[in-house]
Amino acid sequence: MSMVLAPPPLEGSPASSDFEHDVAIVRGRRWRINPGSLILWTLLTLLIIAPVMCFLILAVSPHVFQQGPEWFTLKYVREAFGGATRAGIVNSLWVSAVVATTAVALATMIAWLVIRTNVFGRRVWTVLTWLLLLVPTWMMTLGWGDLLQPFGVASALGVNTHYIFGEFFGPMGIVVVLTTAALPFAFFIVSAALQLMGPELEDAARVHGANRWLTLKTVLPVIAPALLGAFTVSFAETMSDFGVAFTLGYHSHFPLATFTLFSAISNFPANFSVAAVIAVVLILSTVPPILLQSRVMRKRSFAVLSGRTRVARRREFRTVARVAASAGLATIYLVALGVPVFGAVAGSFVRDLGIYSTGPIKLTLAYYRQVLHPDIVGQGLGAPLLLSNQMGLIVATLTGVVALVLARRLVVNAGGWSQRVTDIFLMGSIAVPGVVLGVGYIFFYNQPFITNHFINLYKTLPLLILALVASSLPGQTRFMAGPVSQIQPSLVEAARVHGASRLRAWRTTNLPLVSRVLLWGWLVTFTKVIAELAVAQILYPPSQEPVSVTIQAYLANNLLGDGTAMTVVTLAEMLAVIGVALLTYRLLAPKGWRRIGWSGIQS
Amino acid sequence: MTNPLSVQSTRFRKFVVVAAAALSAVGVVTLSKGAGATSHPTLVVYSAQGYDKATVAAFNATHPGFTVTLNDNSTGPLLQQIQAEGNHPTWGVLWVDGATAFAQLDHEGLLAKHIVPKVSFNAVGKANIPTDGSYVPTGLTATGALVYDSSQIKKAQLPKSWAQLTSSKFKGMLGMNDPTQSGPTYPMIAGIMNYLGHYKGHGSTAASVAAGKSYLSKLKANGLVINSTNGPTIAAIQAHTIAMAIIQSSAGYGTELSQSPSLRVAYLKPVTALPGVIGIDAKMPAAVRNEAQKFVNYVLSSAGQHAMKTGDPQGDSLFWPVLNGIKAANKILPPLSSVPMQTVNPAVWGALETPINNWFTANINNG
Predict the structure, then answer these.
(1) What are the C-alpha distances in Å from A337 to residues A69, A341, A497?
(2) Pick from A331, A329, A326, A181: which is nearest to A248 by CA?
(3) Lowest mean pLDDT among A24-33, A202-211, A471-480, A572-581
């Protein structure tokens, strides 16, 4: 368990802070086991490592879980790198790189405009970015499909979409939708860095005669961790995406790795071994960006937020530039969010959506009537949506607590091997497709030695909740790592020097700064849980169907209108919950908490 | 003057209390919902049938001795769960369309044998009962039914044989599902190979497989459109992207009843029987297997068949009964005797599913 031991903190490193550190003394020094690390890694093992490893080991040893006769073989590795499977891996790698680069560039530009300029509607753009984060990719493609398909919404409005439909359902559409899906991850990581960075660096650069370009060159490296973090998260999220791979990728005969993995286990008997090889490739593909980020962060400290940090000044555009910048932002969000949401919402009111017709469009409320009063008892939206909301509340809370601890550990051990291991582990976990996690949970938690001697959780709601926490934890940890990394340890040290306990020191210094990160991270996880399909479909207990599974069943049975209406109702409900949460924070959180630290929006 | 720090502290405390109370309440409610499942019911039915909820509810209402728990899901995830559970299964009964998965489970020794109830099967029903009685047909549909849009192509213009589908007259008009995504599609492909190769049910399948591959390649060259499952394929017909498709009969009839009155179903000679099949897990304790047998018996009873016929009236309930004396749920179904149906050996063709599906993906879907 070398991971729970740490060498002595280097002089001047951020590791010399308020947490109890291992005292490792080479040649006569004593080593102590850090109980906090032990508990944390045990939790991570039970949540992620053990289930995922149970799946991945099948790549070379299928007999471990009775999936083949071989105790060791490389034949599935050879099989995975042939034909459509290899094409899927290659396609996923270059698409993810293109998407991550584009998303980070776009996000940085948007973040700078929103936070550091007087562009119109700053709060609106941030709200829209949150909406973009909330909408899962399968809902986005549903909206685009409803809009562009033959006799879809656009056709109903008299727009011929034949050409663009063919183009969109291809690599172009894949890159567009995945970029819009990755954009919010990149935006919030970069915007957190920009918001916490005061004007001191820019002022110093300008005072010494730097022009705008040189000032930018001075400032950008300071947010390098955020940029690299945004790239890494965007890359990993894109690699693991299944919604686009299953819809746009499939129909355009452009296989992506997640779909070829899904196909490998769709036959019976399922080829878990080939799927495991593909999963290993997905996970390992995140290592190079992480190592690059780690190398950059090792060279210097990026802590810029202190007790003397001032609020950044906004650049004042002139009217023409201000209007142009605002229009540019409006165009981006119109394409990214407005079009698919309009497609989905409008599609839920168009009668005979997608069916050939020469007559005028007809609107209907029949789909909403079916959603609210289903013809067949037990096939409505109410019970699944309530269950998903309940699970969302629990998962978001558990994930938030553990993610904050993990994010702090990433920062405290920055540059060390422990941090690199944790980082690679987290990023690799983001790249794990949901179906791998789900099946891995069956392999691990259905083992007789666990069910007979420890706990029997298989086919229960607690197991599904654990799997959803495991699915959300890596992303939320990375989401928090940026803002947490910019909090100087001296804040807590100052409180401790003045007699505060460890908890009080954290509560009075760090908590106000991270309260909005916690809130928004909670909200993101909440909505992701409701929309999560792959894990839910594998692990949901009998007669306790989450809403994502219900919606998917309608869509798969060509009940497009009903499925779209359910999607719209679910989205509206999620937004209502978010509104209540934000209002509660605004009413109950101290005013000072809302003025400092990072947020998505000025609360 | 109020100390700002104490105001901050009070507000923070209120916030924590409110949040903790709300989350605790939700947690208790949610996890107590799972308590029922945590108690691990004895018999769990894994089913992909649209009428399974109605049937299980009817069974539980009339059998107060124990409660059957239903794990309703698509066929793919159900089979993934069963395979991942391995030798420590949770399922007691499996109920899906198509016998090839059951043949594989039987081959692995996972099915209880001789579970066929003593009821009167019709000829097609009997033809789908294996010699060891390890699974039972509960209803019948056809895969490879020619579902067409009568507003695009008239009945008289339809192809009369499988060979005619490769004619340039029908170029770009035909669609089908992807066998890796759609459960009923591989049995259709197996049936095509079985028919074209004149396979007698035993011996080498090489010639039949080759004949089937050649045929599918010709369809591909003739503009065959592949979609994942019934839903997108039928949507393509409705959007006039294609005029007809070879899919499951119940999907065609269901769409005709619910959405598209111009849709019709025709049959080329032959189509392949796709029974709804039920089997019992041999690894379960004897007490659970007894419960499972009661459930199977109920499904094959008149009450069970009634629940099946009414549970999904515009979907899976559109099947032909396999029992004498039971009528189809809807008059839209023609008499079974008028449908040229063949039965393929699931033990033989089930073993070939993976390599044939892989070939299809590489050469037809992505080719």
Answers:
(1) 49, 6, 49
(2) A181
(3) A24-33
CB-count burial class (<10 Å; 0-12, 13-18, 19+) for A100: buried
> Which chain A residue has its CA at the smallest distance from B225's CA?
A251
For helices A224-240 and A461-485, the axis angle rounded to 10 degrees is 160
Count of CB contacts below 8 A, A vs B?
182
A585 vs B contacts (CB less than 8 Å): 15
Contacts of A467 in chain B (CB under 8 A): none
Q: Which long-range contacts (CB under 8 A, 24 or more apart) does B117-122 make?
A: B117/B296, B117/B297, B117/B300, B117/B301, B119/B300, B119/B301, B119/B323, B120/B323, B120/B324, B120/B325, B121/B322, B121/B323, B121/B324, B122/B321, B122/B322, B122/B323, B122/B324, B122/B336
ipTM: 0.87
Max Cα–Cα distance, chain A, nearest Å: 88
Note the pLDDT of residue A1: 26
Q: What angle do CA A368, A371, A372 make, to 5 degrees?
A: 90
Cα–Cα distance for residue pair A158/A22, rounded to 1 Å: 69
Under 8 Å between Cβ of A54 and A66? no
Strands (E), A38-124: none
Q: Is residue A601 part of a domain?
A: no
State both tokens at A328.
Answer: 């540019």
Q: Which of B37, B87, B230 sits opposite A544 (nearest CB)?
A: B37
- Asked if residues B307 and B55 have their Cβ atoms less than 8 Å apart, the reply is yes
Chain B residue numbers with beta carbons less than 8 Å from the beta carbon of A556 are 74, 229, 231
Mutate to test the interface with B, among A54, A162, A267, A447 (most CBs of B within 10 A): A267
Is residue A600 a part of any domain in this protein?
A: no
Position A229 in a domain: yes
How far apart, in whole angstroms, are the C-alpha atoms of residue A525 and residue A531? Answer: 10
Residues paired with residue B139 on neighbouring β-strands, in sequence order: B276
Q: Where are the domains of chain B?
A: 1-29, 43-139+274-333, 141-273+347-365
CATH number of the domain to which A62 belongs: 1.10.3720.10
For A365, the token pair is 């409320």
Please count the structural domains in chain A: 1
Integer Cα distance of A46 and A40 in angstroms: 10
DSSP B227: E
Residues in chain A closer than 8 A to B8 (CB atoms): 590, 592
CATH 2.40.50.320 fits B141-273+347-365, yes or no: no
Tell me which residue of A521, A428, A421, A419 sits closest to A480, measured CA to CA.
A521
As given in the structure block, the two tokens for residue A426 are 């987290």
Inter-residue contact B173 to B244 (CB < 8 Å) = yes
Of the ranges A49-53, A252-256, A488-492, A520-524, the best mean pLDDT one: A49-53
**Residue A602, domain member (yes or no):** no
To the nearest whole Å, the CA of A243 is away from the closest chain B CA by: 14
A289: amino acid identity, one letter: P
Question: Given this model, what pLDDT does residue A375 score?
Answer: 67
Amino acid letter for position B182: S
Q: Report the predicted TM-score, pTM, of the whole model to 2 decimal places.
A: 0.85
| CATH class of segment(s) B43-139+274-333 | alpha beta
**What is the residue-level pLDDT of chain B in tens, covering all 367 positions?**
555 545 555 666 666 666 666 666 666 666 655 544 444 557 999 999 999 999 999 999 998 877 899 999 989 889 999 999 988 899 999 999 999 999 999 999 999 999 999 999 999 999 999 999 999 999 999 999 999 999 999 999 999 999 999 999 999 999 999 998 898 999 999 999 999 999 988 889 999 999 999 999 999 999 999 998 898 899 899 989 999 999 999 999 999 998 888 999 999 999 999 999 999 999 999 999 999 999 999 999 999 999 999 999 989 999 999 999 999 999 999 999 999 999 999 999 999 998 999 899 889 987 6
